[in-house]
Amino acid sequence: MSTVTNNLTSTISQTNRRGFLKASAGAAGLLLGFAWPEKNQLAAQFPPPPAYIPNAFIRIGKDESVTIISPKSEMGQGSTTALSQILADELDADWSKVRVELAPVNPQLYGFQGVVGSMSIRTLWTPLRQVGANARAMLMQAAANQWSVPVAGLRTEKGFVVNPSNNARLSYGSVAEAANKLPIPTGIKVKDPKDFAIIGKPVQRLDTRAKSTGKQSFGIDAKVDGMQYALLSRSPVFGGKVASFDAAKTKKVSGVTDVVQISNGVAVIANSTWAAMEGRKVLDIRWDEGSNANQSTPAITKMFTELVSQPAAKPARKDGDAGKVLAAAGKKIEAIYEAPFQSHAPMEPMNCTAHLRTDAAGNVTGCDVWAPTQMQTAARDIAAMAAGLKPEQVQIHSLYMGGGFGRRGSVDYVGEAVEVAKAAKVPVKLTWTREDDMQHDQYRPAAMVKFTASLDANGLPAAVEAKVATPSYGFENQGVPGTAMVGLQDTLYSIPNLLLTYQGGETGIPVTYWRAPGASQNTFFWECFIDELALAAGKDPVEYRRAILKGSPRLLATLNLAAEKANWGKAPAGHFQGVSVLNHVGSFNAMVAEISITNGKLKVHKLTCAADCGHVVNPTILAQQVEGGAVYGLTAALKGAITIDKGRVQQGNFNNYDMLRIDEMPVFETHVIPSTEAPGGSGEISTPLSAPAVANAIFAATGKRLRKMPFLNKDLA
Amino acid sequence: MASIKFNLNGKPQNVDAVPEMPLLWVLRDVLNMTGTKFGCGMAMCGACTVHIDGDAVRSCITRISNVAGKSVTTIEGLSAVAGMADGAHPVQAAWIEMDVPQCGYCQSGQIMSASALLTKKANPSDVDIDEAMRGNICRCGTYNHIRSAIHRAAALTSAKTGAKA
Ligand code: FES
Ligand code: FES
Q: Does residue A225 sit in the same domain as residue A311?
């Protein structure tokens, strides 16, 4: 199809702009992982664009088209549209002329390039407003020069510079070239938020049309000249290696052109994906299974149980002296909660296309990579390593992602594709099947928490101790992995004596960020345990939370709004409610779930969310993210688990690891609290809330406390 | 290898392929029509849904040899086959109007399942929608928007038919 070729051509042409952009050389750190820093550390960990260079972000054509060059890639979260709104509003552009392209990798121009931790709007809100304002000032100056009038008297109007004294008008397209040659101004003021014309409006996503007509090209749709299709056979046991292999049968399969070994397995190269699949089926490999060959889910649960029973290990947060208060307490409330591994399962499986450029003598001189990736800079670096090149010799062409959810923050599939292209000496598209994707994911880690608490004379928490066992990944802070404790250590509940500790828990199973990392399981543990405390105190769960959230007005306001909109306490006959709250990625969110259980079958009827995400850039996209995020969490709460036996994942496809489907989808309401605070994240705020809200509702219905995900019908009785 | 003739998006098509190759891979790898997506390869997700003689079918498990002589419509041809400008098919128009897609990867399949439903039931109930659409996974969670857009597409269609009458 010509559309695909065109999409790719336009992506490829982005790299040619490198010569045209004049970047001031700013030092930009290289990030291979990410953490959840405090607000004031955001800039340090996720450096913003070092200089506000308008033509790195905005290209205005003679035809009046305004092309926004998005430093962030798109996985469905809508940030390419929202970032375009920010730039276009400050620019005073005509929104109907705006389109968006994905930027090449260039940290000197764009700062940190990755879509992780709900960071895009939060970190780029201020810089991009300034870039847009600078660009507008340059266009005005160019018009002033052409008219030979002072710039001070001019104004702009939807893509035009206007001189109010004589009503003369110059379109942005007609002065863009001259504006581009002007120095970048300093001291330009951004808009007063009350004058926003595009920010805060529910404008249509820039990708809606292409995604409704089959024209949107995704990573898996990449096609380059001479390309072959590859599949890789990886060790079924994590950490295993190829001992030997026999490709004789594979090479006889029609369409198979080559079989090559790389560091991570054996690749079958063919003239179609299907031929590569057929060839891989008959590939004979003996694996050296390595040290994980006996790992299993029961063994992991047993190890976690031992770890949380040991004395408190590494403290992540210590307020007051929980140990002392608990030792003296008459009545203690104890509970152990558990969550399994989960796969990301984006609808587009992992894939990557790679082409190594060679000179006449056959030496590798460069590498082009077409990748659906959440981490452009890391993708470039792993490709360089695999190709034996310098990062500057690698061109990453970011393609749209069919979902990411954290999975595409890892770039293993990029390194593999480059290795295969190098070994096979042809451009290849490496596609993962669903089974590859599910069995060689880097999972949401399994986790266990043991809580011990005591209440004061009023029934409020006097002391809480929580011991967490889960694998470590990402950044560590004094031996405590941040992701192990997110959703616990940032709790806003007033608890005078609080001790949260990390107990360890390495499993040999690869793990990584999964939509709302840490918080997605810890919020289930914590918000259910808070309900247990409310029960012990004889209080209503919403009332109880109100009492311990007095010092946190923004979170309290979402709790109150969700309770009000959901008619808390007045569920229809036979329906039961549960509540949960969370402050996460700079936002505040509460949810009420309404369920029923009929003939032993759970039905989630309705989820009501209240969200305070600071200043909202696009209410439609915010609502999409809150709703979609909650569905992601509901799937983990109600459907499958990834389990391990003999070092292997036991699930392989949607037949044994199912997703929530349309007939199980509850009614969903999102109520947004208007705010002028800095924007918070939105893609991960509701995911953690679904499981505890539903579990708390199940308790209301049955009196049965579910302390382990997922909640299956057989567990309800 | 076999030479297989069928009708694709209203035009005659001839492909040389191994007879067992699923239609999905013929479309994507042989004919470079990548609007139809791969999600599971075992009829569990609906991402690969196309119409064969008007029925919604999972192309990932449909051998190309079984398509010989039949009419296949993909997302790329949905509007054109209905005699409309690209994106003007009522289901696509409703999808666009209601901003349904998030990542968009499942949406070709969702739209093909929804449009097949509407040719059989002009005014589907929520139960009809559950029945016809439960084979299509959306990992981004756009289900409620899909439901609303199907009702909207039904309204758009009946408005059009009404106007003609
Ligand atoms: S790819 Fe055909 S149903 Fe999933
Ligand atoms: S829109 Fe992403 S899977 Fe449906």
A: no
DSSP A39-88: GGGHHHHSPPPSS--HHHHEEE-TT--EEEEESS--SSS-HHHHHHHHHH
Domain extent for A688: 297-342+443-715
CA of A76 to the centre of ligand 2 (A): 7
- CA dihedral (B142, B145, B146, B148) in degrees, to 10, reads 160
pLDDT at A52: 60
pLDDT of residue B159: 84
What is the reported pTM? 0.92
Compute the distance between CA of residue B51 and CA of residue B74 in angstroms, rounded to an integer: 7
Q: Determine the Cα–Cα distance for residues B78 and A285; give it in Å rounded to an integer.
A: 44
Cα(A179)–Cα(B142) distance, integer angstroms = 42
Which of B96, B106, B144, B145 best tests ligand 2's pocket when mutated (most atoms within 8 Å of CB)?
B106
Q: In the listed set A365, A396, A431, which residue is the last one of a domain according to the structure?
A: A431
Residue B48 or residue A14, greater confidence: B48
What is the rounded CA–CA span in Å between residue A340 and residue A521? 9
CB-based burial label for A364 (10 Å; 0-12, 13-18, 19+) = middle
Q: What is the mean pLDDT of residues B103-125?
A: 97
Sketch out chain B's domains with CATH numbers. Answer: 2-77 (3.10.20.30), 80-161 (1.10.150.120)
Report yes or no for ipTM above 0.85.
Answer: yes
Supply φ then ψ for residue A154, to 5 degrees.
-90, 160
Q: What percent of chain A has pLDDT over 70?
A: 92
Residues A678 and A574 in one domain: yes
**Could you report the per-residue pLDDT of A644-673, keeping only the tens digit for each?**
999 999 999 999 999 999 999 999 999 999
Sequence-separated contacts (24+) of A706-710 with Cβ below 8 Å: A706/A528, A707/A335, A707/A336, A707/A337, A707/A338, A707/A528, A708/A337, A708/A338, A708/A339, A709/A338, A709/A339, A709/A340, A709/A521, A709/A524, A709/A636, A709/A637, A709/A641, A710/A340, A710/A636, A710/A637, A710/A638, A710/A639, A710/A640, A710/A641
As given in the structure block, the two tokens for residue A267 are 């690749």
A633 to chain B, any CB pair closer than 8 A? The answer is no
- Return the CA Rg of chain A: 27
Q: Which residues of chain A have pLDDT under 50?
A: 1-42
Q: What is the pLDDT of residues A482-500, one digit of tens each?
A: 889 999 999 999 999 999 9
Please count the other Cβ atoms lying within 10 Å of the Cβ belonging to residue A470. 28
Q: Which of A529, A449, A490 is nearest to A692 (CA)?
A: A529
Residue nearest to atom 4 of ligand 2 (CA): B138
Q: CA of A3 to nearest chain B CA: how many angstroms apart?
A: 9
**Looking at the structure, do residues A70 and A189 belong to the same domain, yes or no?**
yes
CA distance A256 to A269: 6
Residue A49 has what pLDDT?
A: 66
Q: What are phi and psi of A287, to 5 degrees?
A: -105, 140
Q: How large is the average pLDDT for residues B80-90?
A: 95
Give contacts of B151 with chain A, Cβ < 8 Å. none
Stated length of chain B: 165
Tell me the C-alpha distance between A621 and A623, whole Å.
5
Give the model's pLDDT for residue A443: 97
Together in a domain, A170 and A303: no
What CATH number corresponds to the domain at position A647? 3.30.365.10
